[in-house]
Each structure stands twice: as structure tokens, then as C-alpha cells.
Specification:
The protein folds into 2 domains: 87 residues, Rossmann fold (3-Layer(aba) Sandwich), CATH 3.40.50; 104 residues, 2-Layer Sandwich (Dihydrodipicolinate Reductase, domain 2). Helix content is 35%, strand content 25%. It has 7 helices and 9 strands, in the order αβαβαβαβαββββαβα. It has a 5-stranded mixed β-sheet with strand order 5-6-4-7-8, covered by helices on one side. A 4-stranded parallel β-sheet has the order 1-2-3-9, with helices on both faces. Helix 2 links the parallel strand 1 and strand 2. The protein is globular, with a radius of gyration of 18 Å. The N and C termini lie far apart (38 Å). It is an enzyme of class 1 (oxidoreductase). GO terms for molecular function: 4-hydroxy-tetrahydrodipicolinate reductase.
């Protein structure tokens, strides 16, 4: 095992990056230097850091997927098309106590996927937690709540709440194996591709 990134990439085909934002940017730059494909699920990236990934994808293929479970991508986007008009949406996520970004990257990706499936503007209203006296819920808003405790691997629940009914879709990761399987699937998807930015919806063929 080598700690020299450039040496390690001499014979590599893919970089798997599940680190922190500063390290992710370094891995993007290294992948460009060595013409290596990239699969990243790093969360907490700033808009500037995400733009760096987008720019790099013009020259190399990248799967950028904060949610590595293919099952989440397939189920949620389909449900979003069914529960569109007249349904409020809430996203509740829970992770281990050491996680430093909130909402989770998966929760934000869920938000984007729901808006895309429902053909809503991606920059429309989002609500991050509630405290004290709050205003009436805005039509079309998607709200987030974050839980941080113990050793929870990752849990995400999306509520589609209509008049007199509520549909809940919950994904619980019982181990990180689901993420590993998703990352390997991503790497296979990138085989033969020369450039482009992709997510799990592309990988599982939803779009």
C-alpha cells in the first residue's frame, strides 16, 4: 500500500473518493493528471468545489453521487412522479455523531431528484429545520431535518403528505456494503467513457 497518490495512480483505472471536501479536490486534480476515472460520494462540498468537479468532467468521466445506493435512486424518483401536486415533502435523515455536514449529501441529492422528477425549479424554496414561531408552509417547499447520534450508518425518510394521508419511503443502510456495491457499479458504468458528469440516476438508467 502506497501513501504516494501519484505513484498509486500509475496503473489505476478509477479513483474512489469518499473523503472530505479538501481531499476530494486533490483527488479530482490527481485524476486529471493521470487520466483516471473518478467515482466520488464526498459530501459537504461548496458550490465552488462542485463547480470544480463539473469543469473536470469536461475532460474525464466522473460519477458524482452522494447517495451510492441504486435502490434509493430508483424508488424515490418514481414515487416523486406519482405524488406531485397536492403533496408536501419532508426529508428526515440520520447519521453517526461524527458526521459534520447537514443536511446530508444524500438528502440534498434526494431533494434534487424529487424536483427534477416533478419538473420543479432546483432553486425553489427549501426549509432547514424549524424553531420557534414559524410561518405557514410555502407551497412547493421541501423541508429537511437532521439527526446526529451514535453509530447510525445512514437513514433517510421522505414524507409525501397529502390531505388525509401520508406516504413514507425510508431507506436504512445497515452496513456500508451497499455503498461499496454502488461504487463498484459506478466504476463499471464509466468503462469506455471519455468524459461527462453522471449520478446514480444515469447509472441505473432513470434518465
Amino acid at each position: 500500500m502506497s501513501t504516494d497518490l501519484d505513484a498509486a495512480l500509475q496503473e489505476a483505472d478509477v479513483i474512489f473518493d469518499f473523503t472530505r471536501p479538501d481531499a476530494c479536490n486533490a483527488h479530482v486534480a490527481a485524476a486529471l493528471r493521470h487520466n483516471v476515472k473518478l467515482v466520488t460520494g464526498t459530501t459537504g462540498l461548496s458550490p465552488v468545489q462542485i463547480d470544480t468537479i463539473r469543469q473536470a468532467a469536461r475532460s474525464m468521466p466522473i460519477v458524482f453521487a452522494p447517495r451510492m445506493s441504486a435502490s434509493v435512486a430508483m424508488v424515490l424518483e418514481h414515487a416523486a412522479t406519482l405524488f406531485d401536486d397536492g403533496y408536501d415533502v419532508e426529508i428526515i435523515e440520520a447519521h453517526y455523531r461524527q458526521k459534520t455536514d447537514a443536511p446530508s449529501g444524500t438528502a440534498l441529492a434526494m431533494d434534487e431528484g424529487i424536483r427534477r422528477a416533478q419538473k420543479r425549479a432546483l432553486d425553489s424554496c427549501a426549509v432547514y429545520g424549524r424553531s420557534g414561531e414559524t410561518d405557514t408552509r410555502l407551497l412547493g417547499a421541501i423541508s429537511f431535518a437532521a439527526v446526529r447520534c451514535s453509530d447510525i450508518v445512514g437513514e433517510h425518510t421522505v414524507l409525501f403528505a397529502g390531505a388525509g394521508e401520508r406516504i413514507e419511503i425510508t431507506h436504512r443502510a445497515l452496513s456500508r456494503k451497499a455503498y461499496v456495491d454502488g461504487a463498484l457499479r459506478d466504476a463499471c458504468f464509466l468503462r469506455g467513457r471519455q468524459s461527462g458528469l453522471f449520478d446514480m440516476c444515469d447509472v441505473v438508467g432513470l434518465w
